[in-house]
Recover the amino acids of this structure.
């Protein structure tokens, strides 16, 4: 699956052989043909009572069934929703609740979201479906400038918090450019929204019900590759899960892997291989909510106890994840006030429109492991700059300033930056040059 950008954070103390270990894992992973191996949730359901086997689309269908049953104001609408949707997520709901509450819309995404905003403001619980996440862009203005800001622009007199936008996201290997994108990053910078991405059926049901009942407008991205591939024991009862809490899926003490959706399973496989082949203990965190993201859980698990401690963090980000989103996380996690000796390594890898495998996660770790202290190393394509004391030249990237301390390793496409001397000068990732 796509890991089009990779953010990595590493504490020092990694052995000299780590680089070849990462290369060995890369060789193993390159021989694997599957996108990922699905790992059912190892934890027992948080809700007691009866459970049944459900795949992800069945769990989503069950969540919407409960929402329509328990809330008379709830409505479900979108393209082809009436007959069950292209992925069958709404199958049977129109027959059960009628065409007045479950209905088709014209092929106009901005109209679907605009109608949902109006319905939510009027007091309805609006569940809108965008048939593919790739088609959400015509509704971008409605989502970002209307839904997200409605509360603020009215001085909290009105809001459309009872709006949930569901959309299938990610690639399945044959969808082409209009059926494979993961555009969650575009919405990750918008105050007033919640952006949620489940990793399996059990999480999908509880998180979707929580979104539907949430007082902020939510975008609920559904990894469509798992609609049928992911099967778990799911409680049949009505339950919700926290939208504010990341989930530590696998404890560990050497490397922290952070992801969401399908990528959690990619990282679990990386952790399994690292343990089996090199006895490296990896912890895996499912971010669950991309906006807002659970900083407290990440801070708790990514921390520096002493400068000799071995540790790392690899955080994978899907298609089109803007640099600022990752950089902001690195800046916050790397705040010197939290840990004076913490070494921050931000690895941002842009892979264009290509699918990226588990190998790229390990490659990021490889880059981090071989970072050299007290050296600045910049690679711009074939152009290389090395320095141990001089400031880096000014570069224009775009969007907002950050300042990172201690050692930093940044990979952005073909750009690589290493430094471990003084705090790096603030870099502007997009709008203007700074030194």
């Amino acid at each position: 699956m796509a890991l089009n950008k990779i953010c990595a954070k590493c504490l020092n103390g990694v052995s000299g052989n780590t680089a070849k270990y990462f290369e060995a894992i890369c060789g193993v992973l390159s021989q694997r043909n599957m996108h990922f191996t699905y790992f059912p949730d190892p934890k027992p359901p948080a809700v007691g009572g009866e459970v049944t086997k459900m795949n992800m689309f069945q769990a989503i269908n069950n969540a919407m069934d409960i929402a329509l049953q328990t809330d008379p104001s709830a409505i479900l609408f979108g393209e082809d929703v009436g007959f069950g949707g292209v992925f069958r997520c709404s199958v049977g709901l129109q027959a059960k609740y009628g065409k007045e509450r479950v209905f088709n819309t014209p092929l106009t995404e901005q109209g679907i979201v605009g109608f949902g905003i109006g319905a939510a403001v009027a007091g309805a619980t609006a569940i809108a479906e965008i048939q593919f996440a790739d088609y959400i862009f015509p509704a971008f203005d409605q989502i970002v400038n209307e839904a997200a800001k409605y509360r603020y622009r009215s001085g909290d007199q009105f809001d459309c918090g009872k709006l949930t936008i569901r959309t299938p996201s990610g690639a399945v290997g044959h969808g082409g450019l209009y059926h494979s994108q993961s555009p969650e990053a575009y919405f990750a910078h918008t105050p007033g929204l919640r952006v949620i991405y489940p990793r399996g059926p059990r999480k999908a049901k509880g998180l979707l019900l929580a979104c539907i009942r949430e007082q902020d407008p939510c975008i609920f991205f559904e990894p469509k590759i798992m609609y049928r591939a992911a099967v778990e024991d799911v409680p049949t009862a009505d339950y919700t899960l926290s939208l504010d809490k990341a989930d530590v899926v696998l404890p560990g003490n050497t490397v922290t892997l952070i992801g969401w959706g399908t990528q959690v399973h990619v990282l679990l496989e990386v952790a399994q291989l690292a343990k089996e082949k090199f006895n490296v203990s990896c912890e895996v965190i499912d971010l669950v909510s991309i906006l807002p993201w659970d900083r407290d859980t990440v801070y708790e698990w990514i921390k520096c106890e002493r400068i000799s401690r071995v540790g790392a963090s690899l955080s994978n980000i899907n298609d089109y994840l803007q640099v600022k989103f990752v950089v902001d996380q690195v800046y916050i996690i790397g705040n010197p006030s939290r840990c004076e000796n913490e070494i921050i390594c931000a690895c941002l890898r842009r892979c264009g429109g290509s699918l990226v495998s588990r190998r790229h996660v390990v490659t990021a770790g490889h880059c981090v492991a071989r970072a050299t202290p007290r050296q600045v190393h910049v690679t711009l394509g074939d152009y290389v700059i090395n320095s141990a004391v001089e400031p880096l030249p000014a570069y224009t990237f775009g969007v907002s300033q950050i300042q990172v301390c201690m050692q930093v390793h940044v990979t952005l496409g073909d750009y690589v930056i290493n430094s471990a001397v003084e705090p790096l000068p603030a870099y502007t990732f997009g709008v203007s040059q700074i030194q």
In short: The chain is about 30% helix and 20% strand. The CA atoms of residues 199 and 262 lie 6 Å apart. Residues 262-278 form the longest helix (17 residues).
